[in-house]
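Example (one chain per record):
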Amino acid sequence: MNAGLDIAFFGSSLVSAFWNGAATYYRGILRALSESGHRVTFYEPDAFERQRHRDIEDPSWAKVVVYAGSGTDGVMRALDDAKGADLVVKASGVGVFDELLESAVLELKRPGSIVAFWDVDAPATLDRVERSADDPFRGLAPQYDIVFTYGGGNPVVRAYEALGASRCVPIYNALDPSTHHPVQPGARFDCDLGFLGNRLPDREARVEEFFLSAASSLPEHRFLLGGNGWEDKAMPENVQRLGHVYTHEHNAFNCTARAVLNVNRESMARYGFSPPTRIFEAAGAAACIITDAWQGIELFLEPGREVLIASDGAAVAEHVRGLTADVASTIGSAALRRIVNEHTYAHRAAEVESTLDALRRSHNGRRRRAVAAEHPSL
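Predicted structure:
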């Protein structure tokens, strides 16, 4: 891009990962865009106790505007403040005022600007819209200049096109090497298999299958479970609950465990092509990753060499039982090399810039043709 853009981004939270799995993704993409010369303002609500559980201060690469999570005065002031931005983004899953924001950001369109919907949980959005013919988002999707998604590949692109979206482009999760990287192991996280993930309705059964059943079959091995919501869940005796693990502790967690497990939510696994942030965080720390099977994993990591694939809990247990420290180190090192070379947020920011450049050229071409048709003598 020739000149940096003023970007107004309405999302769940940039400064807190508390019940907010999109935080790492937001930070990586927006930091990389800032480093490319764009100016970012992130608007987030004071909701779900996230401001009480901040894990970063306001960053130097983005202005953070926190508005009240109840009553509409704060969000309306935020929308007014965003007027004049070159790129206005409404992310999915803000948690409060979602319907209001989905329609209100479209009113910020002006000549030369772009208004985008950025879906950080496309399976949830698309499943919700499919269930309800009256969902207001059905009529709004075609009005956005572009829909970015956090993943989903062709299945998600086709679904958005069926809703009338003018263009849908997946911008996958990635690695920010400045925040996720190898560190010294920490005794607190010593285990044979570790898993980080909040307890969610469409993840719990898969965690039972891939993590808890594997732990039950390996009583002599040590398993660690981090994340919110697991306090009252029955666990095998060899599983230790950690509760919320702050982002700044993730590197030590990933570097200490013999292997770390990724379990996609059911909807993500069904759509495929949806690598979660945990995959890239762990690979960035050179962790040996065991993941549930889902379509598209080979686009990011090579099965058997850079990542281990498991079809069920028994396969997870088999991997854990036979995994030596040397093999785990070899797989983790290969994953780190692949991710650093191909899948950093700098790569993703370049994809966003290229997409926006093409969109602006298309808009400018349409405007020139419209002017020429109206004034043929010019």
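Caption: The first helix runs from residue 23 to 35.
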